[in-house]
Specification:
The complex is a heterodimer of chains A (66) and B (560).
Chain A lengths: L3 E2 L9 H5 L5 E4 L2 E4 L10 H5 L5 E2 L4 H4 L2
Antiparallel strand pairs in A: 1-4, 2-3
Chain B lengths: L8 E11 L3 H12 L4 E4 L16 E3 L11 H11 L6 H7 L4 H10 L12 E3 L9 E3 L5 H11 L3 E3 L2 E9 L2 E9 L5 E11 L27 H8 L4 E2 L4 E2 L2 E3 L7 H6 L3 E3 L19 H13 L5 E4 L5 H14 L3 H7 L8 E6 L3 E2 L9 E2 L12 E3 L9 H20 L10 H16 L6 H15 L2 E2 L1 H13 L1 H4 L7 H26 L10 E2 L11 E8 L2 E8 L4
Helix pairs in contact in B: 1-5, 1-11, 6-16, 12-16, 13-14, 13-16, 14-16
The chains are: A alpha+beta (66), B alpha+beta (560).
């Protein structure tokens, strides 16, 4: 499910959740959490804004397999 | 869930309030602030990453007077008159684009986003019916945050995560509006001398290729919130009958069309044949609506799927193509790689995208009908960018947003004082906004949206009088579910209002499409009962609320 947060790398800066245009991300227990994965637009803003490289984008099978 | 009543109430005021902090909205804010106005920007997301170019943008259309005739204002306006005929008002186009263009190009450089490439040159390509290579390819990956920082530097105030739900107009003049913060539940009562609506087009109205309504070409957060609020307040809309489509990679509705065909890629059917010259003399550089028309015909006639063939491109061209695809849509190169394509050249499978309610051309808009000063029929209410009927695409959002900001600031300077908000109306609207949170049971926003999408896809894309009238009946019938919508948290509450706004715009679209008894812009407005383009419909179908009815009137446009 896009995006995927590497919880070991996330430092909890909160920028991804602050900026996400679809309100997909939230901060939970001090780190980023993907709350609404199905509502991701795949814009890549979270990945661009993450200084820790904690965000990867994974595409759903329905996108890759059709 | 803590109760909605726990939210605070804030009353704020500003000379010029911009609703929607995307490209047009932020350029409007810059202009209004530079004119000395007290400016507030209200955005449903966060201005650093909201709107259509949240993750990047790779092209800007500009004539640059370098010598050849295709690179002049005159040829550009001929192009507008030809490609956007019946939708674009050339007089407004000159004012909001041509007169603003050189300042806009300078402004982008000034805020730190150059349109030049690493060699210090403009890399220009030609596609979508353009008279020459007028599309500048540039690295706009950080254009959005750069514009947001400039707006903050100029002292504009910003309310992020606030969804505006209602405009207040008294005696034919703007009073203000209200909205709520989808992270805190706070309620905002706003007085304004002028507002600029810059909230983009309306998405999530039609079925998407992977059945996920958020896998869209354009921003899925744009749900016609202000088209609806403006319409309810008596604002006229135009160009709303159009249903826009494009051609996208199979599996991922992402932009890239302009980049592919601008670089000389070929559109082929599954027989490996280029086909576009059968539909338009410009072939693979035809206007977008004709490319979509051609693709639809090939599939309909059993020659699908369609592909973009880039195998003939040189390695350097391919490198540029994949680079620029990733500027326009940050994650598209990752997707293509994950799907097994590579930068060595490939036949990439494409499909016709989901429809969207939007402008029929890159050279106009769809929504609030604006005059030459970007003002609507209601004094004090302005519009810019894709949310207006005359602007669209990056080039016109940067130029036209600025034009709207100047006009709105000039208008606000003539208004002596703020008007009083109606307390009773505010209480009623606040109650309406939060009602889905207090229902114990009911329909989810997702269920309502799914029904809207099925109706809209079946009735509002390829149209006849019967398809539209039955579509309207079905959409009207959905009104009964509005009182049953249920939300478990603020995020779902925002989506509930979006679903209702999508339904409202779908109805408006259907009524406008019913009144346009012709076909125009290929598949963007195709009436099987009136398949020809007719001169008497060369102009705007203007829509306005008339009691409980959707009123329409026709306004002709003239071209040289």
């Amino acid at each position: 499910m896009p995006p995927v947060i590497d919880k070991r790398k996330c430092q909890g800066c909160g920028l991804c959740a602050l900026y996400c245009p679809l309100d997909v991300l939230e901060m939970r227990d001090g780190i980023s959490n993907v709350r609404y994965p199905k509502e991701c637009w795949h814009c890549g803003a979270c990945r661009q804004d993450c200084a820790q490289g904690a965000v990867t984008i994974e595409f759903l099978p329905v996108m890759l397999s059709v | 869930m803590t109760g909605w009543f726990a939210g605070k109430t804030h009353r704020v005021s500003a000379d010029v309030v911009i609703i929607g902090g995307g490209t047009a909205g932020l350029n409007a804010a810059m202009a209004a602030a530079q004119s000395g106005a007290k400016v507030l920007v209200v955005d449903k997301a966060h201005i650093m990453r909201s709107g259509a170019i949240a993750g990047g943008i790779d092209h800007f259309f500009a004539y640059m007077n370098t010598g050849p005739s295709w690179d002049t204002r005159e040829t550009y306006l001929e192009f507008v008159s030809k490609v956007a005929r019946g939708a674009s008002n050339v007089r407004i186009h000159e004012k909001v684009y041509c007169d603003e263009l050189s300042a806009a190009l300078e402004r982008m450089e000034k805020i730190g986003v150059t349109l030049k490439n690493k060699e210090g040159k403009y890399f220009r390509t030609q596609a979508i019916g353009q008279p020459g290579p007028i599309a500048i390819n540039f690295n706009g990956k950080f254009l959005k945050p750069a514009m947001a920082k400039e707006v903050l530097r100029l002292g504009c105030k910003v309310l992020n995560r606030v969804q505006v739900t209602k405009l207040f107009v008294r005696d034919g003049q703007l009073v203000g509006f209200c909205g709520w913060d989808m992270r805190t539940g706070d309620f905002y009562e706003v007085q304004a001398k002028a507002i600029i609506i810059a909230t983009g087009n309306t998405n999530r109205m039609f079925k998407s290729q992977t059945a996920n309504p958020f896998n869209l070409w354009y921003c899925p957060a744009n749900t016609g919130d202000l088209h609806t609020a403006a319409y309810e307040a008596g604002v006229e809309l135009a160009n709303v009958e159009y249903v826009r489509l494009t051609i996208v990679p199979k599996g991922f509705s992402a932009p890239g069309f302009n980049a592919f065909f601008g670089m000389g890629a070929k559109l082929v059917n599954s027989l490996g044949q280029q086909f576009m010259t059968n539909y338009h003399p410009a072939g693979d550089r035809a206007p977008r609506h004709m490319m979509v028309w051609g693709a639809l015909q090939e599939v309909k006639n059993g020659r699908g799927p369609i592909y973009v063939d880039v195998r003939h491109l040189k390695q350097k061209e391919l490198e540029h193509l994949f680079f620029t695809l990733g500027i326009d849509k940050d994650t598209l190169p990752d997707f293509l790689m994950a799907k097994g394509y590579n930068t060595e050249g490939a036949m990439i499978e494409l499909t016709v995208s989901e429809p969207m309610q939007a402008r029929p051309s890159e050279l106009c808009g769809s929504g609030i009908k604006v005059d030459i000063n970007c003002m609507s029929n209601i004094p004090g209410i302005f519009a810019a960018g894709d949310a207006s009927d005359q602007m669209g695409c990056l080039h016109m959002c940067v130029t036209g947003g600025f034009a709207a900001g100047k006009s709105a600031a000039a208008y606000a300077a003539t208004v002596s004082d703020y008007q009083l908000l109606d307390d009773k109306a505010l209480v009623e609207e606040r109650s309406r906004i939060f009602a889905p949170l207090i229902r114990k049971a009911g329909m989810s926003y997702g269920e309502l949206e799914t029904i809207i999408r099925i109706i809209a896809t079946d009735h509002l894309v390829m149209k006849t009088e019967m398809s539209l009238t039955t579509g309207i009946k079905k959409l009207d019938h959905l009104d009964m579910y509005r009182e049953q919508l249920k939300a478990d948290n603020f995020h779902e509450l925002m989506r509930c209002h979006e679903a209702m706004n999508i339904q409202s715009v779908a109805k408006i679209l259907a009524h406008a499409a019913l009144a346009r008894k012709e076909s125009r812009f290929g598949p963007y407005h195709h009436r099987a009962d009136f398949p020809e383009t007719r001169d008497e419909f060369c102009g705007l179908m203007v829509v306005r609320k008339n009691g409980d009815d959707v009123g329409t009137r026709f306004e002709p446009l003239t071209y040289n």
